[in-house]
Specification:
Chain lengths: ~325, ~325
């Protein structure tokens, strides 16, 4: 049954599992590395590199997204971006994804297919294929994405930062948090921030380049800049200092800060929805083009926080916690 | 923080995300093929075979399991079994899993850790490692498992059955459906059936053996015997006839059938929670030891059903649908 043959107001319960899967199969194109694709007990993928990089992420309606804050295609793109960014953060390139969708039976098929199109569009940015998944009924809408990929050189883990390294960032940071703050107050502008929240633009080419440039540690900013810097600091057994003067605060963030009575640097330090990469390099000479040095790696200070801002503990929100 | 240090009545909200992940890391042992394990943006796994087999499954509380019908470790084992069985059905062997858990913040940590132990125990049966995942809050408890594996010879897909093949089954079938029927009426016995539902025993060695014996098509029975036979028939463009006389109906199934006023063959034909393998072979000479011939593959009959029982369309429930 072609996807277009569902009535406009059909729900998942109306459509049924197998027509829905058939519609997904029309939307998700499979690359040449897919030896057995969607529709069997499992997919079979060609692996040329001797290893596979794998990561799983969940998104839950009401916690990670709201259907009244972003369109279905945006939610799909954001779900895929979250997955793809994890491979980017290892210095790799995503090749394949599986998509699990637990959804209320009264959800409209149209929403789900638009979601799938957004997911597919984002995957296409890096040439990755959706190779399978699962759909089932659930009172809560939960999206479970798993991404597979490969690294051309050794993966960059979180634990390799050394005192003396510089800390650098690649990609927009704080824009999505600004957009989220705006939506949370019931507004829809500045539109550029709301769009940044709805459709993050992770720097998908930057992870491989950083790995090739000798990045000692890397992470994607998904929990919050300071929270994710702390993950690197803890895994590496070092301290990290972030310098706020390194950030040029974009005009829309100033505007939102003024409107909400907040210091706009908070969006940058605590935001986690833009998925830029944070990496450490042995010296600023090694930092690739397009990256901005934002801090330094220091000896651990056992009396203080793993991450400081301008040399002092930070009192604001450092990021997101899941419980 | 060691897993044992959570207070006995601690909830996920009390524990917090990162101590919970640390406890998972204690429970999940990683094999030597795990180059980078849980705790980074992604795991990195050694792949020696030039390919990877991957499958994702969801389990939703109230639809796929009930916490009052099975203990946490049983739910974990069943979630893992469902994943592992999909690799078995390709003729492969699972190596690695990721586990996504979307759970209510007031769920007890003890339940989650027992769940994780059951999941780990089932994975250990085939030597597979849990290499990462995600935990997040959700009103509905949803388990998202993704399994990776490999085949030693060509994977066995659903689409290779040919008219003239025999259909064979390996593993217990109908017991879990009998147990589920019992639990659904508020009973707890026959205990052997209830236990079969709580802890399926998929024949994890049978998939590889069937592949080596020349199986032309294979599937694991997870939707229901007739429903899954229909998946093979449709993918292969053939008809399948199942012979009820081939099944020896176990005494506890007779007992439950008598108690519930049902023909016990219904549990066998419609049940989907035991995860046996159904495969087709060119002749009964090729059927490996431990498999039972239960039917035949025929030319497609365009006027009739893809699957018949004793030569006639079946009027009862053929299996499970997700919406």
């Amino acid at each position: 049954m072609p996807a277009t043959s569902f009535p406009a107001d059909a729900t998942l319960a109306d459509a049924g599992e197998f027509p829905l899967i058939a519609a997904f199969q029309e939307i998700f194109e499979e690359g040449e590395h897919v030896l057995v694709g969607s529709g069997d007990d499992a997919a079979v993928l060609r692996v040329k590199t001797g290893h596979v990089v794998v990561s799983t992420d969940l998104m839950v309606e009401g916690r990670h997204f709201r259907r009244d804050w972003a369109g279905a295609a945006d939610v799909g793109a954001r779900a895929a971006a979250q997955n793809l960014s994890d491979i980017n953060a290892m210095g790799g390139r995503a090749t394949s994804l599986t998509l699990g969708l637990a959804a209320p039976p009264d959800l409209r098929v149209e929403w789900v297919l638009d979601f799938a199109r957004g997911f597919a569009d984002e995957c296409a940015k890096v040439g990755a294929s959706v190779v399978g998944g699962d759909v089932t009924a659930s009172d809560t809408l939960v999206i479970a994405g798993t991404v597979l990929g490969a690294c051309t050189i050794a993966p960059v883990v979180r634990s390799g930062a050394e005192p003396g390294d510089v800390v650098a960032l690649c990609g927009r940071q704080g824009w999505a948090a600004g957009g989220l703050a705006v939506l949370g107050r019931g507004f829809r502008s500045p539109r550029v921030l709301v769009e940044a929240y709805r459709r993050p633009q992770p720097p998908y080419d930057a992870g491989e380049v950083a790995a090739e440039s000798g990045a000692t540690a890397m992470i994607d900013v998904s929990d919050g800049l300071l929270a994710d810097a702390a993950h690197v600091a803890e895994a590496s057994g070092v301290a990290i200092d972030i310098r706020t003067a390194a950030f040029e605060i974009a005009e829309p963030l100033h505007a939102v800060g003024a409107a909400l009575g907040a210091d706009p640097i908070q969006f940058i330090l605590g935001g986690g929805d833009d998925h830029p990469l944070l990496a450490c390099f042995a010296s600023s000479d090694e930092v690739p083009e397009g990256w901005q040095v934002i801090g330094s790696v220091n000896e651990p200070d056992h009396d203080g926080a793993a991450v400081t801002v301008d040399g002092a503990p930070y009192e604001g929100e450092t990021g997101w916690t899941h419980f």
